[in-house]
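Hi all, posting the design record for the shared folder.

TITLE: backbone redesign
STEP: 1 of 1
STRUCTURE INPUT:
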């Protein structure tokens, strides 16, 4: 073995030993409470942040672009829509539903909302909303009240709807 090869081998070995020692000290310090931030749980989103997701969804709904509204849903989302008996379980079904629903130029308005933030990556928003709809033929406006549940998951840094249920509000008994 040449002198240069031995020196290079010694330097590499020394570098590995130093790196291992520094890593061990760093782990020991962190596990002994030396750096609590390194092990802190990710922060849950605020309820206001989850509530704002509806506003973005509603804005997309008013765009009259079914692809834009479908982009709010995860690829594996389930949609139980207000104005259709069909359960939508894929992107094509969700787009199809909104193509027809958007004919009424819907504008959503929350009446009451209950938000439950489950963890840093999931939340549920349930409540009652109104849709203001315009008949394409007559121009006449009507309002439909419905119950809703949105289940959101944060995937790859983006909040998406994974489950959306909406049904016409029954009359008070």
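Okay, here is what came back for every position:
SEQUENCE:
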């Amino acid at each position: 073995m040449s002198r240069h090869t031995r020196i290079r081998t010694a330097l590499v070995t020394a570098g590995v030993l130093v790196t291992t020692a520094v890593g061990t000290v760093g782990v020991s310090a962190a596990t002994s409470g030396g750096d609590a931030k390194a092990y802190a749980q990710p922060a849950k989103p605020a309820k206001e942040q989850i509530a704002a997701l509806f506003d973005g969804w509603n804005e997309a709904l008013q765009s009259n672009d079914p692809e834009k509204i479908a982009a709010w849903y995860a690829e594996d989302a389930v949609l139980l829509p207000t104005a259709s008996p069909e359960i939508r379980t894929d992107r094509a079904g969700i787009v199809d539903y909104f193509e027809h629903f958007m004919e009424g130029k819907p504008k959503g308005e929350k009446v009451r909302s209950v938000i439950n933030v489950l963890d840093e990556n999931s939340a549920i928003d349930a409540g009652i909303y109104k849709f203001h709809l315009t008949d394409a033929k007559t121009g006449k406006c009507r309002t439909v009240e419905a119950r809703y549940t949105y289940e959101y998951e944060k995937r790859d840094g983006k909040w998406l709807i994974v489950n959306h249920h909406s049904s016409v509000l029954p009359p008070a008994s």
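COMMENT: Strands lie at 73-80, 107-119, 122-134, 141-155, 158-168.
Let me know if anyone wants the other runs.
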